[in-house]
Amino acid sequence: MYISNIWKLNMIRFFYHLIPAYVIERLYWEERGMTIQLVILTEIIFAATVVLFEVPTGIIADKWGRKRMIVLASFIGCLEFFILVFATEFWHFALVVFLAAIGSAASSGAENALLYDSLLHNGKEQHFEKYAGRLNAIDTVSIMIAALSGSLLASHYGFEFNYWLSLISMIVALVLSFLIVEPNVRSPEENEETIPIRQYLTASLSFFRSHSDVSLVVLVGMVTGASINYIDEFWQIYLERLHIPVYFFGIFSATIFFIRMPGNIFAYKLKYRFSYRFLLAFSLLVFTAGFFYISMVKDYSGLVVIVMICCFAGLIEPLASGYLHHRIDSTMRATMDSFQSLGQNVLKALTGLGFGYYSSKLDIFGGFGFIGMICGLYLVYFLAQSKKITE
After folding, report:
1. pLDDT higher than threshold 90 for residue 154
2. What's the rounded Cα separation, in Å, for the pair 357 and 354?
3. Which is more confidently placed, 143 or 169?
4. Residue 245: is it exposed, middle or buried by C-beta count within 10 angstroms (0-12/13-18/19+)?
5. Closest Cα partner for 101 from 43, 167, 50?
6. What are residue 124's phi and psi, to 5 degrees?
7. Has this prediction a pTM greater than 0.90?
8. Closest listed residue to residue 135, CA positions, set 120, 114, 121
9. Distances (CA, A) of 239 to 248, 299, 369, 371
10. Nearest-CA neighbor of 338 among 131, 172, 197, 129?
11. How many whole angstroms separate alpha carbon 239 and alpha carbon 237?
12. CATH class for domain 4-185+195-388?
């Protein structure tokens, strides 16, 4: 019966990301007085809030249910877009980002944990990368539809109209989240026990210390996840700097998300043909070279390189997540998954400082160059330590 959770998660993620507002979000924010530096500040607020809430929400999901966290995330999403429709001051946007961070923290560990345990109850846990990749592909389809329709709707009806449509989509996701059936991952004796929060933390940290290979792979997901965020958040400004008309934005947005689908869908097959070490090292190399290229070559060829970076971003996520989930216990699955998101957002906050500084000095191109340097440094470390990876 729990296999039905997979299509429910697919539908929730579809409507959760069917957000036409995103295609014009940075222009909408800029129109209302938000500079690049203020946007970077909201990114730091987002990352810092996730750092505070990521692990606690993962523990709550393990102790009291993953469904509750997914419902909470959808409800917060509805609240975000309602506020954004009327946002005019920096603190409005800061509040939205604060709420978005709580919603992201609530759903991040809970969704993967629910997916893995639903598969586990049906004897299909070895196919986690396959279903996780498909879940990400559903996100991509949703984002593409939103991007293509959003740019057209914004040009005809204005930016604010997209935000009302996004609110409606989020309400649908909220309704669907109530239909999830929670798998029971504990024995009757464990259900009666109250596990101290400290035990979740100490057990998780002990696991990562004793499994250096897992830590290394998870760190790849953190570094690349934090890096691709700056393409997702600032590609609109990059295109504007190249003097590309707004009506092409939807096509480009759809492209950079569509290109992630092959990696999402075929990651589980590639891991049987190539080693984890090769796939992750090559992906890091693409990230490093790609970010340096778009920082130095300021012409249309940079768009092709951005597409290449996004292609490999789609491959890394299911590989890193699967490597972790195959090695952890169900009773602490959401908590330990949350540590990956926690680390990614810590990196996002730290790199945001450098990205903002170099963007203020050298425009958006300088910010991308800084991200290339971060990826390059981790690539060197990964190559030096990657013999620890067991597959």
Report:
1. no
2. 5
3. 169
4. exposed
5. 50
6. -120, 25
7. no
8. 114
9. 9, 10, 16, 18
10. 197
11. 5
12. mainly alpha
